[in-house]
User: Fold this.
Amino acid sequence: DGGTYAIAIPKAPYRCPPGPYERASLVADYFKRNKPKSKVVILDANEDVTSKKGLFKKAWKDLYGGILEYRNNSEVKDVDVASNTAILEFDKFKADVLNVIPPQRAGTIAAQSGLKLINQRWVDVNWLSMESTSTPGIHVLGDAVFPAPTMPKSGHMANQHGKLAAAAILNLLAGQEPNPQPVVMNTCYSFVDAKNVIHVASVHQYDPATKAPQPVKGAGGISAARNELEAKAAMGWARNIWADMLA
Assistant:
């Protein structure tokens, strides 16, 4: 009791945008109940919280005053493993537990396969079939692709990509064109303590003009406030997507 846990978040895009903030919240919840002298520090390379900003910040203020500290524009450049010290651009931060989430990119196999990468990080895809734009016949899903506008790198979205690709492959094998206007959806739940949950949801439809899915106006939404009812919805969502993907 009395130690410091620090979590370092890379610049977006990275997988599951709210994930690190949820993790920090749950560690703070544990500290509050079991180690009240301990502290959580979020070292965020981004200018601000990247997902559910208002809801997370209100939860931190209401629930974890004096326990959780948020620091923006705090990109970790290196780590001194021997001393558990994060090396920032103009500062250093030492913690008892240092949870560093590194900058992310598509797997090495993408570059080794000669697929076209955007910013040397993400695979450029045809959103009608999830095929690499440089290598038709190779379909790429989920975190590895360059994201469409406002499209998160979430597990739910990867599930949707898989279904879009599977439907397109069946059409292509039958000598038909893929669906010209596919629609994909995202839902993401985050626990801010052991009982209360917040969510964000969105719908994205392919736009021929931009050749990418665009957010559908008026669709989706975000929680009005943290609440216990959404915890039941979150667990229901988890059971359903596990059954869908692992059956």
Q: What stands out?
A: The chain has a mean pLDDT of 97. The chain is about 30% helix and 25% strand. The first helix runs from residue 19 to 34.
